[in-house]
Specification:
mainly alpha
Length: about 180
C-alpha cells in the first residue's frame, strides 16, 4: 500500500495516550540500559520527559532534546558492542519521540506509536541471549498495554513499513496483532 499524504485526525489527549503507552513499554527495558551504563541518565531523562507529557505537560523542545540525547546514548552503547543496552536506549528515545507523531498517513509514522515497544522487546531478547521466547513474552506485554485509544489511532495509519531488521520485524508483528 502506498503512503497516503492525507491528514490523520487525532487530538492532544490521544497523543498523550500514545506517549503514555510508549513510556509503559520502554520503562522496563531501562533496567537493561542502566545495568550496563549506570552513569548515563539520558534514556531515563527521555522516559521521564515523555511521562510528563503524557501526564499533561507541554510538548517542548526540551522533550525533543531528551529523545535525541537518548538516541545518542543508544549509538554509543551500540558502538561499545552493547546491543541490548542500545535497544533499551532506543526504546526510551522512541518514548520521548511519540509526542511528535505527525498527522500524515505515512507508514513510517507507525514507528512513533510502536517503536518504543519494538525496541524494548528487542532489548529483552538480546539481554536474554537473543532468546525469542523472552521476546514473545515481552510482545504479549506490549499488546496488553495498548489502550483502545492507542489501537484506534494506530488503525488510522497505513501498516508498518518494511525493513528495519529484527526490530522492524517486531514492529510489524505488533502492528498486525493490534489492528
Amino acid at each position: 500500500m502506498a503512503d497516503d499524504p492525507t491528514a490523520i485526525e487525532f487530538g492532544r489527549s490521544e497523543l498523550r495516550a500514545i506517549a503514555g503507552y510508549a513510556v509503559a513499554c520502554a520503562r522496563p527495558a531501562l533496567a537493561i540500559f542502566e545495568r550496563d551504563r549506570p552513569d548515563d541518565r539520558r534514556p531515563r531523562a527521555a522516559i521521564d520527559a515523555a511521562q510528563a507529557f503524557a501526564d499533561g505537560g507541554e510538548r517542548t523542545t526540551a522533550l525533543r532534546g531528551t529523545a535525541w540525547a537518548a538516541h545518542r546514548a543508544a549509538q554509543e552503547a551500540r558502538d561499545a558492542g552493547r546491543a541490548a543496552a542500545s535497544d533499551a536506549a532506543r526504546a526510551a528515545a522512541h518514548a520521548a519521540g511519540a509526542a511528535y507523531l505527525h498527522p500524515l498517513a505515512k507508514a513510517t509514522q507507525v514507528k512513533h506509536i510502536l517503536g518504543s515497544a519494538a525496541h524494548a522487546v528487542r532489548a529483552f531478547e538480546l539481554s536474554a541471549g537473543n532468546n525469542p521466547t523472552v521476546g514473545a513474552d515481552q510482545m504479549a506485554r506490549a499488546r496488553s498495554l495498548a489502550h483502545p485509544v492507542v489501537v484506534d489511532v494506530l488503525r488510522r495509519y497505513p501498516a508498518a513499513p518494511g525493513g528495519g531488521g529484527r526490530v522492524g520485524e517486531l514492529l510489524r508483528q505488533l502492528d498486525a496483532s493490534l489492528r
